Amino acid sequence: MCTSCECCKRRDEYYYRNLDDEKKYFLVLLIGDFRDEMIIPEEIVQRFKRDILGEIKLETRNGDNHAIVVAKIEEKRIFTVGWRQFVANYDLQIGDLLMFRYKGNSQFNVIIFDKLGREKASSVVLDPFIPRVQDRGNEAHEIGSSEKMDVQCGRCNNWLEYHYADLDNENKYFLMLMMGDFQYEMDIPEGILQRFKGEFPREIKLETQNRRSYKIGVTENKLDICYNQKLVFSVGWGKFVETFGLQMGDTIVFIYNGNSQFSVIIFDKHGREKALSVIVDPVPPPVQERRPYGTDIVKSSHFYPQPMQRQPFIVVNGLPVESPPIEGQWRAQLEMDKSCQGSRAAINTPPSESSGLRGSLSFEHGQGVRDVPVSSNIVKRKAKLSSSQKEQLRDGYITAHKTKLTLAQKDVVKQKVQSLESKISIFVAVMYKCNVESPFFLTFPNYYAQKYLGEEARMHLELLGVKWQVRFPNNRGDKKLKHGWKQFVQGNNLKMGDICLFELLSNQSTMVVYVIPANDANVD
Length: 524
What we know:
The two termini are about 25 Å apart. It contains 12 helices and 24 strands. The chain has helices spanning about 5-15, 40-45, 85-90, 155-165, 190-195, 235-245, 325-335, 385-395, 405-420, 435, 445-455, 485-490, and strands at about 25-30, 40, 55-60, 65-75, 75-80, 95-105, 105-115, 175, 185, 200, 205, 215-220, 230-235, 250-260, 260-265, 295-300, 395-400, 425-430, 440-445, 460-465, 465-470, 480, 500-505, 510-515. It is about 20% helix and about 25% strand. The strands form 5 sheets. The chain has a 7-stranded mixed β-sheet. The chain has 3 domains: about 1-125, Beta Barrel (At1g16640 B3 domain); about 165-280, Beta Barrel (At1g16640 B3 domain), CATH 2.40.330; about 390-515, At1g16640 B3 domain (Beta Barrel), CATH 2.40.330. By secondary structure, the chain is of the alpha+beta class. Keywords: DNA-binding, Nucleus, Transcription, Transcription regulation. InterPro entries: B3_DNA-bd, DNA-bd_pseudobarrel_sf, REM16-like. This is TF-B3 domain-containing protein. It is found in: Nucleus. Pfam families: B3.
């Protein structure tokens, strides 16, 4: 990847600007007199295709919605009516940062960080004793600048911090600001280490939005005569900094995916995503030789809470797709895909509940997902593998029984699977008409379902850092994903010919999804 060539920068910027707005993030640093009004930086406005004006909705991770009016004053876009209450609700201070992602229909997801790079617990944890924002008649036109705001006390903040600490690491965002001497080593802020539950791994993998992976060593660094220790990004960090041209004031948001892997979103000092970390290079670098992660770990957290159910929050699909694939290119494969022929009619399928699911950064309470043994009164035949599936498993993945990958598709899939280094086989699905149009469903291979999915009816699909709740309609061995799948497809703009890779995390309640757009697969 080239960081010095101006031609490459202009090309990346061109493709980035042509992405759908739903695939873009932007970051705003709170400075100056922001409490009553806030100007949206012009550098961010220029990155959007649509104009940001009128009433919008900001949705925090706990599901609260806030109506804000964006006015145009002297060619500037300004948060006005409703902004003051939003600031008060989350006790926003100078130095706090807000990460936005457009979700369509004048709605934005927003992640709130304090000046130390920690999420504001009040924007993540849902306190049942605090009235929900949408229950307060909190429409923007009803909010006056003199309205009295609710202020949380110290006990409330402690309660929220306690329950935030209780979340799994996969449900938390971390933010690091590039400052000081970070070119070759980078101190991991103490506030982040305290928020990371358990032990911080000695070697991690950072994956950017264009699916490039970078291994970074984590070492101890003695600071002073008192032997106070810091953890620092060391081996591999300098190359990462050089690759993306990181400068003073740039920011990285980290999203833990388990298995010592983090997805990262990289912003410049203006709060714009680094296009180089989003746009896919048509000439990918050679695949690195696979090797296991280091097993040494360092104790780094002051919290040891009980594990909770994974909550929604951050994986990657910022790709320059200029037009959808022609249907005829995939018709032959579509006709061969048994899962799309509807030959297996669903029996006793409950009424659809998908319309009530939100494809956003929502927050749920509940106990952790339990391993449920197979019911003794259900007799299941052992799944048989085709010769092509046996060959695929040797390469670390599996497709549906009748799916046929072209040579070009096999190459790009194998490269991606190798970069993931997953201990569990990756399920690979080519999107056919039945997957992305009515009747909207996805069938997992019997072998994969029986070996990995068990009897759980509910799980989460995670893409671009956002989790989507989905359900299987019954507990048969051949799992057909229906409830919530339509929302996932439409929310992520999946098209016929796209290739989806499903990586099951160790907790077996979440699958991270990686998308290879049809145009990137170079179909034969």
